[in-house]
């Protein structure tokens, strides 16, 4: 797969790189060679999903951050640590979940080499291009519930009209990549870290995750 060239600008898609019949290990290996959009050029590596292969709950975030890009695993930075704490408090063992992102490469700006890399939100074309990876993860993990972490992940799954503030903490049922899915949207843990009242924002995240726990039964 590494011999494939990058998709042309008018046809960004990861689809040619996604193996038709593969388990999660093979899928992760194939994703390392993805050239479906330009984000791979500057990122250190592909950051694929990780966790329990048949988890009851899948958590979907936006994209890798700086630490995730360096370490090659999702949610290993400060936001990930906060998420693990919130999950545990809500009654979900982080080890029992599958965690991934809508976009698998870190998108950032950097004024000059050695300077801090500043996160940039992926655009709709980049989210759409990466969609085949997420679709395959959903097919293989087959979770009972998806926790949608933030507006970008919600738009990737539910369309550009998604507004996390309007539906957070509720149970939705939608057709996602050909599967009928139940979803509970909430804020991205990085939004909690940026909040003026961090404790109130954290309590809100935990409350939304508790809705997911009740939905799982």
Topology at a glance:
Elements: H1 24-31, E1 50-51, E2 57-61, H2 66-71, H3 78-90, E3 98-101, E4 108-109, E5 118-119, H4 124-141, E6 145-149, H5 151-158, H6 164-167, E7 172-176, E8 179-186, H7 189-194, H8 198-216
Parallel strand pairs: 2-3, 2-6, 6-8
Antiparallel strand pairs: 1-3, 4-5, 7-8
Helix pairs in contact: 3-8
Structure description:
Helices cover 38% and strands 15% of the residues. It has eight helices and eight strands, in the order αββααβββαβααββαα. The strands form two sheets. A six-stranded mixed β-sheet has the order 1-3-2-6-8-7. Strand 7 (172-176) and strand 8 form a beta hairpin. Helix 3 crosses helix 8.
- The neighbouring-strand order within the major sheet is 1-3-2-6-8-7
Radius of gyration from the alpha-carbon trace, in angstroms: 16 Å
Shape estimate: globular
CATH topology: Uracil-DNA Glycosylase, subunit E
Largest sheet: 6 strands, mixed
Number of helices: 8
The helix content is 25-40%
Order of helices and strands: HEEHHEEEHEHHEEHH
Number of strands: 8
Low-pLDDT windows of residues: none
Mean pLDDT, nearest integer? 93
How many structural domains does the protein architecture include?
1
The CATH architecture is 3-Layer(aba) Sandwich
| CATH-defined superfamily | Uracil-DNA glycosylase-like domain
The helix/strand class is alpha/beta
Proportion of strand residues? 15-25%
Distance between the termini: 42 Å
Given this structure, which CATH class is correct? Alpha Beta
């Amino acid at each position: 797969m590494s011999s494939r060239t990058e998709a042309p600008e008018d046809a960004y898609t990861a689809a040619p790189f996604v193996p038709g019949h593969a388990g999660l290990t093979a899928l992760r290996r194939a994703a390392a060679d993805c050239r479906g959009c330009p984000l791979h050029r500057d990122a250190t590596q592909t950051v694929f999903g990780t966790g329990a292969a048949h988890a009851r709950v899948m958590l979907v975030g936006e994209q890798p951050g700086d630490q995730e890009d360096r370490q090659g695993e999702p949610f290993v930075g400060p936001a990930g640590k906060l998420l693990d704490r919130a999950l545990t408090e809500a009654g979900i063992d982080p080890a029992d979940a599958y965690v991934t992102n809508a976009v698998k490469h870190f998108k950032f700006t950097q004024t000059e080499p050695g300077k801090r890399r500043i996160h940039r939100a992926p655009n709709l074309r980049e989210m759409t291009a990466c969609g085949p990876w997420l679709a395959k993860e959903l097919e293989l993990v087959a979770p009972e519930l998806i926790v949608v972490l933030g507006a970008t992940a919600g738009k990737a799954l539910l369309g550009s009209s998604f507004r996390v503030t309007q539906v957070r903490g509720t149970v939705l049922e939608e057709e996602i990549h050909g599967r009928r899915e139940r979803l509970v949207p909430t804020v991205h843990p990085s939004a909690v870290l940026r909040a003026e009242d961090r404790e109130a924002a954290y309590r809100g995240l935990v409350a939304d995750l508790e809705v997911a726990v009740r939905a799982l039964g």
